[in-house]
Amino acid sequence: MAIPSPAPRRWRIIIPAVAIGLLVVSIAAVVVVPRLGARGNAGSTAGPICAPGTATLARNAGDLKTGFIYQVMLDRFFDGDPANNDPAGDQGLYDPTHQNWKLYWGGDLKGLTDKIPYIAGLGATAIWISPPVQNVTKPLDYGDGNGPQAGYHGYWATDDYRIDPHLGTWADFDAFIAAAHASGLKVLVDFAANHSNPNDLGQFGAIYKNGVLQASYTNDPNGWFHHNPTITDFNDQYDLEYNTLDDLADFAQENPAVDAYLKGAIMQFVAHGVDGFRFDAVKHMPGPTGGWLRTVADGIEAAGPHYLTGEWQTTDPTDPTYPLAARFANSSGIALLNFPVYNAIDNAYGRSALVGPVAINDVLQTESKDFTWLNDQDNFIDNHDFPRFLSVNPSHAALNAALAVVMTIPGIPIVYYGTEQYLHDDTNGGGDPYNRPMMPSFATTTPAYQLLHCLAALRGSNPALAYGTYEGLHFGHALYVFQRQFGANTVVVAVNSASDPVTVKAGQTALPAGTYHDYLNGAFHGPSLTVGAGGAAPAFTLPGNTIAVWQATAPTPTTPLLGSVTPELAQPGDTITLDGQGFAPGAVVKLGSYAATVTATTATSITATVPAMPGGMYQATICAGGTCSAGYPINIATGPQIPVTISVTGLPALAAGDNLYLTGALPELGGGNPAPTAALGPMIAAPTQTTSRFLMVSLPACHTATFTFEIVHLDGTITAGHTAHALNIPCQGEGAATFAWG
Q1: How far is residue 455 from each of residues 123, 389, 411, measured CA to CA in Å?
Q2: Which one, of 633, 88, 696, 3, lies nearest residue 361 by Cα?
Q3: Is 568 designated active site?
Q4: Banded model confidence at residue 8, pLDDT cuts 50, 70, 90
Q5: Do 90 and 145 sit in the same domain of this protein?
Q6: Which residue from 217, 392, 608, 645 puts its CA 20 to 30 A from 112's CA?
Q7: Are residues 653 and 566 in the same domain?
Q8: Residue where a domain terminates, one of 598, 617, 636
Q9: High-pLDDT (> 90) share of the chain, %
Q10: Whole-number Å distance between alpha carbons of 198 and 597
């Protein structure tokens, strides 16, 4: 959704009033709680800082915007079954003393299941678990003095069809899924489809299917792996996709056997009831604008709406790979972990406020133009690959401020396990593996736990946070004031992360006239806010270390308000879910001019089936009583997607800065638009290739594709090939074809 520019508006708030806003359902129960100290390092609160609240918005498997995701590293959460700590066949990988940070410590699926009430009480609506599949069964010793290592983290798979015995069994997994669903929690499984395990020691990349060896890096006659050097240039697309990430045996997804193996393992998790996936290292798999992973997403969504997200590390919008990351998110059906926002939050609150919170606003403004579905991308303040927030900045007040921001800006929040307990270990700067301690406590009274609980409740009841636009209102070195709006629903957030008070300039909000009690009941020093006619209010002083939230929820609208359509990528026959407000029986769903078949309707959610229609990007609308909602974009594939590797030979010499693309009439090939923002590419070349290029693309099975190649020069001009090439796309598996430039 478009984000309005903050320039025309100026912040205008006043403060001192105690009366209750007439049109606002903002007030929690009056609960007496101690205010946090100057640095916010109080050990606990006296009780809830907001009323329990009732979730009124839809919570569907494909749409996680009305809640937040809780990320768990299974081995480091809770030991529910000591009998599997040192299982037969995998012995020697467990350290009961918890001194070796690279061995198993005992956490398992049973332990996570036992703690589901704790996670549900926190307010999370989904759990992202580390890869639960069988990992290396022998200790690895790199000879670096760190001793033996194990795949406790889940990213050294040896069998993607089995549950790692240190974590439990398929029966334990099923029990976990059932318990999570019974508590209203969705489950995302982390899946590493880029690689198996280290190729240079231990099991040498060996990969099994239900115990049957498929291939190993050192015995690979059928080409399951890319046998290429370690990645050195993280801005070169060939290097990123086809070379080796660290020493991990890199899968050749263009091999039909590998394609079938990985998709089969993924669909096995779908059959066991998971609600979505987090894909590891999507930046390193074939096809920069979707490619192989687009076909994975297409297959998953054919089984029903699921939430999919992936890891594509970028620094900020100036990162050379950022444009491809945005295209990936817009075309693959897979959202992304929002690393530019993470880095901006880290700089604003973590690293001694090197950059003020205006940098967060700047990233969001840029991303609002570049990302089709900004509210679907994932925001976080730390995770298993980076030092925990408190290892960067030990201030609990700064952590609370960062959490408040990540819970309320556009995007789906992710909270790393233990953050709500102020968990961190600063050994060697707190990086891997010291950012993965054992969960120390399950207290529900810490300020961070209470803050998350309250803001999660707000995400479930005020659609402005889930579906709304964003507008930055006022900024300072430590001051961040912004608002979210969806229809007449509004949330205004003010954060002052400095210890000194700061003056908030007069300005204007979208809140109706009235007085608003801080939604957090003043627990983080938030004052009441009085808004005059037109949302105007005079300047006021915001105390140090303050988090304040003021909100207005509107009555149920009389016309439909559409805030979400999932999945982002669908095809005719797929089920889609439309979420928002003001829906009623008899509502009509349209995708462009095509009417979808409605199968279920509630006041906040409609389920429908995509009709037979051409592929392309459409605006979904909901119409009732002659009035239609605003449109919401959805990408419709021409048909079931399969990966096809297209190569071209005999190229003319390409000058520095030239790139090769392919374009065709199918929407999967750009819909006939030759611009590099629509055409597929850039096509890539191995280091020894000078007159040829190749690219893995996602195309509709059993169709004929007609396309041309084109050279896009550094100045933006295009030299098009004169020959139109035709490709009969296979009906299943994978495809590959080579053409001559012309």
Answers
A1: 8, 19, 14
A2: 3
A3: no
A4: very low
A5: yes
A6: 392
A7: no
A8: 636
A9: 87
A10: 49
Instruction: Output the six-digit token pair for 299.
Output: 């297959």
pLDDT of res. 22: 26
Domain extent, residue 500, equals 467-552
- Angle, CA of 429, 96 and 439, to the nearest 5°: 50
* C-alpha R_g of the chain: 26
Give the active site residue among 95, 280, 298, 382. 280
Q: How far apart are CA 127 and CA 109, in angstroms?
A: 12
* 3-state secondary structure (DSSP) of residue 447: helix
pTM, entire model: 0.93
Residues 135-147: what's their mean pLDDT?
92
171 phi-psi bin (left φ>0, alpha ψ -120 to 50, beta other): alpha
Tally DSSP H helices, then E strands, for the chain: 13, 42
Distance of CA 615 to CAs 301, 577, 634, Å? 16, 18, 10
**Short-list 317, 316, 327, 337, CA closest to 290:** 327
SS3 label, residue 454: helix
Identify the CATH number of the domain in which residue 607 sits.
2.60.40.10
Exposed e or buried b per residue across 496-506, where buried means at least 16 C-beta atoms within 10 angstroms of its C-beta: bbbeeebebbb
Q: Which of 90, 311, 668, 710 is catalytic?
A: 311
3-state SS, residue 382: coil
Model confidence band, residue 288 (pLDDT cutoffs 50, 70, 90): confident
What domain count does the chain have? 4
**Residues 202-215 pLDDT 10s:** 999 999 999 999 99
Q: How far lies 663's CA from each of 146, 629, 685, in Å?
A: 51, 34, 18
Say whether 233 is catalytic. Answer: no
CA–CA separation, 21 and 532 (whole Å): 11
Q: Are residues 522 and 662 in the same domain?
A: no
Q: Which of 636, 665, 699 is the last residue of a domain?
A: 636
Same domain, 407 and 311: yes
Q: Is 341 exposed, middle or buried (0-12, 13-18, 19+ CB in 10 A)?
A: buried
Express each pLDDT in 620-667 by its tens digit. Answer: 999 998 899 999 999 999 999 999 999 999 999 899 999 999 999 999
CATH number at residue 204: 3.20.20.80
